[in-house]
Amino acid sequence: MQVMRALAQAEPELRSYVRTSAPQWLFHDPKTPIDYSQQTLDVGIIQTDSLAMKLGDTLAACQALYSDPQPLIDTELSFIKAHDIDLIVGDAPPLAFEIAAQAGVPSVAIANFTWDFIYRAYLEQYPGFAPVIETIIRGYSQATLALTLPYHPCASTMFPRQEAIPWISRTSRLTKRAARRRFTLPQSAAIVLLSLGGMGLDRLPWKRLAQQKDYYFVTTGSARQRDGNLLTIPVSHNDYVDLLRAADAVVAKPGYGIVADVLAQRLPILYTDRGEFAEYPRLVQALGECATAAFIANADLLGGDMQPHLDRLLARPPHWPPVDLNGAEVAAQKILSLFASSR
Question: Which domain holds residue 246?
């Protein structure tokens, strides 16, 4: 979405079409008109909540998708022809680049990891991932250009052309005081945002958190609801960066989005293990080198024993070395350059 905003700012006449299984609200921005339609182009990881993965179900879904992808590809080729699509950008479903190759249009992969790398970690337990990985690599090898983000964990040798870009991030324009006013949050409290991915974490012991009165815990949900020092508020995706600005610390599992956000807001992060996910060590490395960060084990998180960890995190000297955060603008320029050269 940040790249689409940058493209729209650089070339207002461009029209963007989004084909994804992600919800439409993720792409709502009145200043960046986007034609949205639903289509499943990859599997990712099937999860029961933000910390629990279902690898057997993930493998079965991958086998169903990749065993005979041509009917799906044909559907997308019809879409491309009907809408005069000139270039495809993918983050980073392998079939997108096979579709582009068959359509005869250039394609750009934007990746903080590739799915062959993620699935390779599960081969010993689930050898059925081997042919899936081969299909994924063939798809990636069709990409015209790959733009890789900082701390990218993969060798990505299957991409014929690869260029590194800075962090793609969001920055709030509000001060902390203004952000707290926006969400009706107390100005003097030590606010901790629980950011545990779109699937949430119902296993958290909320009553235990309510006993830790030194902190005011905020999370997101469908309706505003307050219980002592626990607050749930509805926040749109576009407003979430302002909620990060309002907080003094965030508790999260390391994913690219939240890591980029804490770097942009310079927000201390208490992070937990997300299970056997191959990108995790590189994101932890990024937090160690570029952020004020500390670790909390899953057992302590799910036991609700956050206060001593938060105390230690907020007592640390700030550690925010300068990092480049203009990856969206750099990506947009590289995409436009490829677009111009292919016409």
Answer: 176-315
Residues 153 and 205 in one domain: no
Bridge partners for 231 per DSSP: 218, 226
In this structure, the answer to whether residues 246 and 302 fall within a common structural domain is yes
How far is it, in rounded angstroms, from Cα 279 to Cα 231?
31
pTM of the predicted structure, to 2 decimals: 0.91
Q: How many domains does the chain have?
A: 2
In this structure, which amino acid lies at residue 97?
Answer: F
CB 335 within 8 A of CB 89: yes
Compute how many other C-beta atoms are within 10 angstroms of the C-beta atom of residue 302. Answer: 16
Mean pLDDT score, 135-152: 95
pLDDT score of 199:
42
Predicted confidence (pLDDT) at residue 79 exceeds the cutoff of 60: yes
**Strand segments (E) across the chain:** 16-20, 34-38, 88-90, 107-111, 145-148, 162-164, 191-195, 216-220, 225-227, 230-233, 249-252, 269-271, 293-295
Residues 132 and 183 in one domain: no
Q: Average of pLDDT values for 300-321?
A: 94
> What residues pair up with 53 in beta bridges, in sequence order?
47
Query: Order of strands, edge to edge, in the sheet holding 269-271?
Result: 225-227, 230-233, 216-220, 191-195, 249-252, 269-271, 293-295
The CA-based angle 67-70-71, given to 5 degrees, is: 105
Say yes or no: 80 and 200 in one domain.
Answer: no
pLDDT of residue 51 exceeding 70: no
Average pLDDT value over all residues in the chain: 92
182 plus 294 within the same structural domain? yes
Asked if residue 155 and residue 11 are part of one domain, the reply reads yes
Same domain, 33 and 160: yes
| DSSP annotation string for 62-78 | HHHHHSS-HHHHHHHHH
User: Are residues 205 and 303 located together in one domain of the fold?
Assistant: yes
Question: Sign of the CA dihedral 55, 56, 61, 64?
Answer: positive
Distance CA 25, CA 159 (A): 31
